[in-house]
Write a structure and sequence with these properties.
Chain A has 12 helices and no strands. By secondary structure, chain A is mostly helical. Chain A has 2 domains: 53 residues, no CATH class; 217 residues, Orthogonal Bundle (MetI-like fold). The chains are: A mainly alpha (283), B mainly alpha (285). Chains A and B meet through helix 1, helix 3, helix 4, helix 5 and helix 7 of A and helix 1, helix 3, helix 4, helix 5 and helix 6 of B.
């Protein structure tokens, strides 16, 4: 009787840990498989693999569309990171420190791009850009009107909209936890406002800013729906290029591209972990 | 003076959100009432025809797609909850040294692009030369390949994989905020582990469950990449239909109407879910 109870308890614990292990394996499996497929000599992944080869990477680096898209995506993500971090930090500072009456409403308003499905925002922007182009074009303002429809600027605005809430969340969390008496102490010891901000406030909230910035970079780099509907004429981002490729081709060049994209993400994650700790990332 | 100066901090962002989010959404509402046209994006005048066409289609085609979309959303959410809850509980309570690595394991799939992750599943599930079919064939277990992709199964696997972290993270946060002493108390009073989880931990973690479920549901019913890549053109759900109307058929007003019907239906399901779970959560507020 007792032995049976112990056995049942062990079995239950085994099942529980088994399920947990299974879920971790499930989460990581496709990423591991993509990396293996990119290093595999054969066209298809078999088990055991057919041998090690870098031929798919050679094929990737010889493919102009992929290289162009990679460079384009990195540049777009970089610009998006700068703008989103700047705007997001300013807003977080205002909401936490200065907002009085409308604080909660303002918070919700800034988080709106995160709460609305990305695909709807993409559709809305597509319609809107087209509308500006026709309406302003009709008024003889083609220059302003055409500035957004299928242009880099239009795409960039979409990316900034979607990534801004992440910067805002990361920074407002660290601002809320900020002990205001530290600033008061600096001021009472004779530091002026600017020095206090530079020497006390900034170093303390820096992890939040860095985490938000790196997160906005990663999210922009991987963004799909916005990039699909707002693509600029002539060039597409890496996820779109990859999407178009794997829909019709099955050769592992796509695996090499994917691995490079995974590596870029891993670099950003390791950078975050080293600089500020992964826990500073907020969703 | 001071108040005006601080307003400069939010002016650019508020301007951006009003100009490129609020106005575009209002414009989309208007678009859904425009008269459709075959030669241009829309014709002059306004109409209800787009909504009527979606609802009163002779075969109820659009409503059936809507039903499939909601069903896919509900099943994906349920599977994510069943798989995600034990992981969240384990991570919240484990004394392991590798805790932060486990946390990174949950986060990292979230940070890798959705196309890459779907492509990974395409290599694994591939109908002819996928990894699973290759292994099964080499072992002599099957002669003809099994169809793992380009059907609802493949799409569900992909969706569960992609949205599972969105279920785990809120639940993890909720469980971490529960005092472990409560569990110890329940067990010292004679409750089994399982009973402790079902009667103490789970009810207290309901806010996390609620948040995670709503996130996964909303993300699933608006997913585009996964249904296309893992469903081929065989699995049709609302987002794929909407994008098809916009990019291929160029029927913008109708596409906008479909998008609003999807959003409205999704909001109704979320609202009903909130009502149901809030009733259970009355005790813990």
């Amino acid at each position: 009787m007792r032995a049976a109870a112990v056995l049942r308890k062990r079995l239950g614990r085994g099942l529980y840990l088994g399920l947990v292990g299974f879920v971790y394996a499930f989460l990581l499996l496709p990423l591991v498989i993509v990396v293996l497929a990119s290093l595999n000599a054969g066209e298809y992944l078999t088990f055991p693999p057919e041998g090690f080869s870098l031929r798919w990477y050679v094929s990737f680096f010889n493919s102009d569309p992929f290289i162009d898209s990679l460079v384009f995506s990195l540049w777009l993500a970089f610009l998006c990171m700068i703008i989103a971090t700047l705007l997001g930090s300013m807003v977080a500072l205002y909401v936490v420190r200065f907002a009085r009456k409308w604080r909660d409403q303002l918070r919700l308003f800034i988080l709106m791009p995160l709460l609305l499905p990305e695909i709807l925002t993409a559709i809305a922007l597509l319609f809107f850009y087209y509308r500006i182009e026709t309406v302003l074009g009709g008024l003889g303002l083609e220059g302003v009107g055409g500035a957004f429809h299928k242009t880099f600027l239009g795409l960039l605005i979409g990316h900034v909209l979607v990534t801004l809430p992440f910067v805002f969340l990361g920074l407002s969390a660290s601002l809320y936890n900020f002990d205001l008496s530290l600033e008061e102490a600096a001021r009472s010891l004779g530091a002026d406002k600017y020095t206090t901000f530079r020497r006390i406030t900034l170093p303390i909230v820096k992890p939040g800013i860095i985490a938000g910035a790196l997160l906005s970079f990663i999210i922009s780099f991987d963004l799909f729906n916005i990039s699909l509907l707002l693509k600029a004429t002539g060039i597409v981002t890496l996820p779109i290029q990859l999407f178009d490729y794997v829909r019709f081709e099955f050769d592992p060049t796509a695996a090499a591209v994917s691995t490079v994209s995974i590596v870029i993400t891993v670099i950003a994650i390791v950078l975050t972990e080293k600089l500020v700790g992964l826990r500073s990332l907020r969703f | 003076m001071r108040a005006n100066a601080t307003l400069l901090l939010i002016a650019p962002t508020v301007g951006l959100l009003v100009g490129f989010l609020v106005i575009p959404y209002l414009n989309m509402v208007v678009m859904s009432f425009r008269t459709p046209s075959t030669s241009q994006v829309f014709a002059p005048g306004y109409t209800f025809a787009n909504y009527l066409k979606a609802i009163f289609d002779p075969d109820f085609y659009y409503l059936r797609v809507l039903r499939d979309t909601m069903a896919l959303g509900v099943t994906t959410t349920a599977i994510c909850l069943v798989l995600g809850y034990p992981v969240a509980y384990h991570l919240a309570r484990t004394p392991s040294r590798f805790k932060s690595i486990l946390y990174a394991f949950i986060l990292s799939p979230l940070l890798v692009g959705v196309v890459v992750r779907c492509y990974g599943w395409m290599i694994i599930l591939g109908n002819n030369d996928g990894l699973i079919n290759n292994i099964l064939r080499d072992l002599g277990l099957i002669q003809t390949p099994i169809q793992l992709m380009y059907n609802t199964f493949g799409v569900s696997v992909g969706l569960v994989h992609i949205f599972l972290p969105f279920m785990i993270l809120p639940i993890l946060g909720a469980i971490q905020s529960i005092d472990p002493a409560l569990e110890e108390a329940a067990q010292s009073l004679g409750a089994t582990r399982l009973k402790t989880i079902f009667r103490v931990v789970f009810p207290l973690s309901l806010p996390g469950v609620q948040a995670g479920s709503v996130l996964v549901f909303v993300l699933t019913i608006s997913a585009y990449v996964t249904p296309i890549l893992l469903g081929g053109f065989k699995v049709v759900i609302m987002p794929t239909l909407v994008i098809q109307q916009l990019l291929d058929a160029m029927l913008w007003p109708f596409g906008a109407a479909l998008a609003f019907i999807l959003s409205f239906s999704g909001a109704v399901v979320v609202y009903l879910y909130f009502m149901a779970t809030s009733w259970f959560m009355k005790g813990i507020r």
